[in-house]
Amino acid sequence: MVDAPQQKLQCPNVLDAEEFRRQGHQVIDFIADYYDRMSDYPVHPSVTPGFLRDVLPTDAPRRPGPDAFGSALQDVRDLLLPGMTHWQSPRHFAHFPASSSTVGALGEALIAGINVVPFTWAASPAATELEMVVVDWLGKALHLPESLLFAGGGGGTFLGTTCEAILCALVSARDQKLAEIGGNRIGDLVVYCSDQTHFSFRKAARIAGIQRDHCREVQTYHGDMFALSPTELQAAMQADVDAGLVPLFLCATVGTTQTTAVDPVGELCAVAASHGVWVHVDAAYAGSALVCPEFRHVIDGMESVDSFSMNPHKWLLANNDCCAMWVKKPCALVAALGTEQEYILKDAAAEGHGVVDYKDWTITLTRRFRALKIWLVLRCYGVDGLRDHIRSHLRMAEAFEGMVRADARFEVVTERHFALVCFRLRSPEKLGGEKTANQLNRRLLEEVNAATSGPYMSSANVGGIYMLRCAIGSTLTEERHVNDAWKVVQDRASAILRKMEIIYSVLG
Amino acid sequence: MVDAPQQKLQCPNVLDAEEFRRQGHQVIDFIADYYDRMSDYPVHPSVTPGFLRDVLPTDAPRRPGPDAFGSALQDVRDLLLPGMTHWQSPRHFAHFPASSSTVGALGEALIAGINVVPFTWAASPAATELEMVVVDWLGKALHLPESLLFAGGGGGTFLGTTCEAILCALVSARDQKLAEIGGNRIGDLVVYCSDQTHFSFRKAARIAGIQRDHCREVQTYHGDMFALSPTELQAAMQADVDAGLVPLFLCATVGTTQTTAVDPVGELCAVAASHGVWVHVDAAYAGSALVCPEFRHVIDGMESVDSFSMNPHKWLLANNDCCAMWVKKPCALVAALGTEQEYILKDAAAEGHGVVDYKDWTITLTRRFRALKIWLVLRCYGVDGLRDHIRSHLRMAEAFEGMVRADARFEVVTERHFALVCFRLRSPEKLGGEKTANQLNRRLLEEVNAATSGPYMSSANVGGIYMLRCAIGSTLTEERHVNDAWKVVQDRASAILRKMEIIYSVLG
């Protein structure tokens, strides 16, 4: 069948231990050098679309030259890194952090090196068992209720992202509900969130076949600090019931993306329960803070939720990617996502031995051994170490907030719950006051981010108010970076106000 | 808000360059030593459920001791590795390979070290642009039609797994169809595959809200080598149309999981086209072989498919995880999976500059910089190197097949297309003949896999025939491992036949 040039049977050297050692040490030094030089890079490159595509060849090489690996690393340094947004920069304050640690990064290296595929227990027994142990370790460290842990009859797993977690939970809830009301009523199902809920949820709802106009985004208000109101939720659910529709699923958020608003989980669960609605809590960012006991209050009432997810890759030193998901009833996941035939076998095995086949818990069958990374992070930093890490960012955020409050030209727009500060420049009356405030702050953000060695921040636009977001959470961020960031904001604000005053005085 | 013990603002050392260097070199040596010692491990551990859970502590440590990292690595060596299935073992012939290379593994290390989150172009411009370039490089290397490449108006991306790829394609097709026929007709949609199609597809269909009984698994036959018959597909689609249902989606497979059957893509596309059906081709395993021009014929007619996916992590040296997906009309993906508001912005940007925001192409928003790994693999091994790699496995599979054929006690059950050999022991007439063949081969597989330093194989059960699967594709596999594996199979077969003859002679 194969008509190829004659060669010896095996391919040379592509997984040779000595070659791995040689190239591996190169890569380690490369990454360490990158961390060393991190401060030299502008956080965000000033490049235009096409800058890289236009210079790369249009085809892969046929036969690489000698030291192709060294020359590729050189291209990473010279071509790619200058065009990256450096999420590990101590001056990266945009979005949410992509939390890195030496152990998290090396955990990934170890996972890739060992390269097993633990889709069933048998496909790599130690990997499945470690996952079951570590997901309980993490759940306990985060003060989750026992009902979500294997130890309490629930259970968890490690996925890639929150969107996957929500989709798994939603599909489980959907199939459970359709089994009750009839498989042909998918068009009657309605899902709920707030207007602050991350787009992941609407994406998951669409993927799961929920009608696009059956996703209720309950409006939130500045007065409630943009938290989802149980009263409004109840009204929305009742209206749907009255219209003959079927409330299915609520996605509550602890720490929304725009302003880290905290939905009142306990009260929302009570509303949901009265309508037989599955409650998922998305704590993608803020979940990491639950490692500190002083945050336990934000998950009051969590005993009633059906599923919970958070991303250790966001703020728990676990490097991209890792989302942890826990559910109260793993059997609902398996019923929705399991392989039919093996489902029966698996249950029997689980009854006897208490192990799971994770392929039946998630969207994907192939999966990475993410538990190894989380285990290493917990082993090497310990629960106390993770608390120190979170608290150091909280203190820096508190300090930043204090500086904003101390400058009367600025205001902190929403209450700070975690390590995100949402603030804006007040627009002076003589420059148009509230009418020009959004425009003024857009310009401020642009100029702050344009400063080559300055901070990189992002924005929120909530309830009509445009604000700057300073999310402190990069592992390399120190007090001085926060102080410098604030100085850049002040300087740019002064310059903008000065310019605008001149323009206004000339015009007016 | 935070009432924590007083400490300095930043957390010590968790992303310190020197610490990374020290621990990183340890990890590299650890992995290299693992590769060196790979042959010493039994491929599959003889452990029982609970073996690891029972010995691990029930809680994460509070404050780790000195050299926690070194001691964790020791536990990986002493506790975890002995309980793993060693997918990189040269004697791993089960499932499909989880293809490793030094460059693939180190690519993952580099991705984790740099740790950017390229969900939009702006979130890391070089990452998005590299992905666009490399996905075209790979598509060209695999001889895909231009219609699927960015260069030809299509485009591709790197995901985690095939299930994600199929789900993205299916949701795009579904929403496109519902826009035509009415959003409330999801219950009328029908999807098609063969009884050999991987479970991923049924899983994706369930997730997407297709009714469970609307997934047609067209029966295949030994006479067709278990390929999907266009005639039977046409009959199935016509029956659904006649019943007032709406054919939506066909998942064809190039290289099925059980026996690497190849569905006739071109003819199937013609049938699908007549019903307005989206065609996805899943070449998860065999797609890697397309790098060799001698396999171009298996994708004859590919110009008509709407989407195509394959897993470089299976057989293209790319380490877990990476699935490459290409689509003919990226706009269908964006319409189904994009963020509403930004959708408009994105389109404008794309028109002007030809870049994409990959968050709108996939299920997940957070994503890893997988393109870096594929770029390194293509850069360092080159297209010719990848051909050598694939052909070396093909030659070994050919040799194994020859050995099976040379022993009259055995038979090769299905035609070998790639590097999987499906074979079984014939059951002698005096031992019950065909009636006992499945049982005999089950026992043979058990005994082969029980040999401590023997090969690890898996099984297929197709058309009522149970067979052993010998999938050659581990990077470390050499001719001698294949020869040794065959000797173990022969020895075990001889022993089983001898024992059974004694039993039969005593009984009879």
From TrEMBL, chains A, B:
InterPro entries: Aromatic_deC, PyrdxlP-dep_de-COase, PyrdxlP-dep_Trfase, PyrdxlP-dep_Trfase_major, PyrdxlP-dep_Trfase_small
Region forming the signal peptide: none
Molecular function GO terms recorded: carboxy-lyase activity; pyridoxal phosphate binding
UniProt keyword Nucleotide-binding, yes or no: no
Keyword terms: Decarboxylase, Lyase, Pyridoxal phosphate
Keyword NAD: no
Gene Ontology BP terms: amino acid metabolic process; carboxylic acid metabolic process; phenol-containing compound biosynthetic process; primary amino compound biosynthetic process
Modified residues (N6-(pyridoxal phosphate)lysine): K314
Pfam family, one: Pyridoxal_deC
Cofactor(s) listed in the protein's UniProt record: pyridoxal 5'-phosphate
SUPFAM superfamilies attached to this UniProt entry: PLP-dependent transferases (SSF53383)
Homology family: Belongs to the group II decarboxylase family.
Protein name: Uncharacterized protein
Organism: Lolium multiflorum
